[in-house]
Design brief:
- There is one protein chain.
- By secondary structure, this protein is of the alpha/beta class.
- Helices cover about 40% and strands about 30% of the residues.
- It has a single domain, classed as Transcription Regulator spoIIAA (2-Layer Sandwich).
- It is built from four helices and eight strands.
- The chain has a six-stranded mixed β-sheet, sandwiched between helices. It has a two-stranded parallel ribbon with strand order 4-6.
- The longest helix has 23 residues.
- The chain is globular, with a radius of gyration of 15 Å.
- The termini are far apart.
C-alpha cells in the first residue's frame, strides 16, 4: 500500500506475514505528518495488536525534530528494526535508542528480520516442545 502527501508518494507499507515492511521513498525529509500517516497505516494493518516493523530508512534525506519526537514516543509496533546502508543512516536514527519501543539499527536485512521475528520463533519452539 502506497501513501502519499499532495500526490507525491512518501512511503510504502507491506505485510510480510511475520512483520510489516515500511519503505520511505527516496529524497524525502520525514515530517510530522508523514510519521502520523505511517503510524495510522501500521495500526490499520495490525488490527489484532502490535507487530514487528522493518523500516527502510537509507534513502531518506532527513527527519524533522517533530517527526523524531513522535518516533521516540510511538508504540505502534512490538519492536522496530531500522535498516540502512551506511553510517549516515545510522547517525540519522541514533535517537532511536531512547524510543519507547524496542529498536535496533541494522545494515543487513536478513539480520534485521531475524531479530524482528526472534520472539515469534522462540514462542513457536516452546509451543512445539509442549506439544511433543
Amino acid at each position: 500500500m502506497e501513501y502519499s502527501s499532495e500526490n507525491a508518494p512518501r512511503f510504502e507499507l507491506t505485510d510480510e506475514g511475520d512483520f510489516l515492511r515500511l519503505c520511505w521513498n527516496a529524497g524525502i525529509v520525514m515530517e510530522l505528518g508523514d510519521v502520523q500517516s505511517s503510524i495510522a497505516a501500521v495500526e490499520a494493518m495490525s488490527p489484532s495488536g502490535q507487530r514487528p516493523l522493518l523500516v527502510h530508512i537509507d534513502r531518506v534525506n532527513g527527519i524533522s525534530a517533530e517527526a523524531r519526537q513522535l518516533l521516540l514516543e510511538e508504540t505502534c509496533s512490538s519492536r522496530t528494526a531500522a535498516l540502512g546502508k551506511d553510517e549516515v543512516a545510522r547517525v540519522m536514527t541514533a535517537f532511536n535508542y531512547r524510543a519507547a519501543t524496542l529498536s535496533e539499527f541494522f545494515t543487513d536485512e536478513a539480520a534485521a528480520i531475524a531479530w524482528l521475528t526472534q520472539d515469534q520463533a522462540d514462542a513457536q519452539d516452546r509451543t512445539d516442545e509442549q506439544a511433543g
